[in-house]
Task: structure prediction
Amino acid sequence: MIAINIYDISRKAGVSIATVSRVINESSNVSEETRKKVLAAIEESGYTPNAFARGLGLNTMKTVGILCANSSDTYLAQAIYYIEQDLRQHGYDSLLCCTGYNIDAKKNYLNLLISKKVDAVILVGSNYVEPNEKNNDYIIEAAKKIPVMLINGVINAPNVYSTVCDDFAGVYEITENFIKNGHKNILYLYNSCSYSGMKKMEGFRSALKNNSLPVNEEYIQFIKNQNPSVHEIKDFVSKISARGISFDGIIACDDIIAIGALKYAKEAGMKIPDDVFITGYNNFSVAECCDPELTSVDNKLEAICHHCVSTLMGVFAGKSMPKKTVFSAEIVERGTTLFNI
Result:
């Protein structure tokens, strides 16, 4: 069976492919006579329009590119789900590329999506904001062609729109709660030096300083693995303890890391929350799957993703939209802490 495409419909109806696309997209800029002619050609040929055909003549493919580093990451996978669902409700398809963390791969995938004529690109995750500002130039260049949306990262450039959680304030508040409740030897565990990761770190350090506590670098521990398992985290904390570093609190930049620390604490015979407070970050469902259930900082991911897509739709509509929107984090207390103040 020979496949029918938009060019065949164009020849059969005696009109341009742009006119065919306008008819497919129900544009009013087509005469009734021409519309009937094109629809008749489509019906006779049994033609099914694709995204490319819909985009021709309207300067839109009704498709948005999504870039993430690793779709197996819980945070990124959840964000992709929310974004894709919202885009679909607005009549847009999605093209997903998983870039990894290498800068050259990020550039290549972004250029690939632009070559596919997507209407915009959403960069999911703060790892797309490089500490070396020069390495962000490829994003700024892309934004000269199409809107670029950033989830949990900020780049100040034309046609770049950022939606973020105030991760600094989120970690600052949870750290201060630990301190006010008598837990001052706090171990901080992190595995990312991204924009968001550094904001969290700054929040932790600032809370210690503003409460007249020293910032002891031994208590700030970096986990090299981007996606560590619970058992890897348990072993990591065990090695820290074996070096003679004692702690009565653990703050982790991620829920999985916090659960690994919780696993160590239980096996070490610590009473939770009496001996040690433990908290994670993101407030994903796994926080309710451990015993005791995990206190976590809710970074409002669903609201962030929804706002990102809403902002993009406003940009498409030609409206003046905010370049940066910040959501406040919220502490969700469960069984791994006991805040009395």
The CA atoms of residues 187 and 219 lie 5 Å apart. The chain has a mean pLDDT of 92. Residues 6-55 form a domain with the 434 Repressor (Amino-terminal Domain) fold (CATH 1.10.260.40).
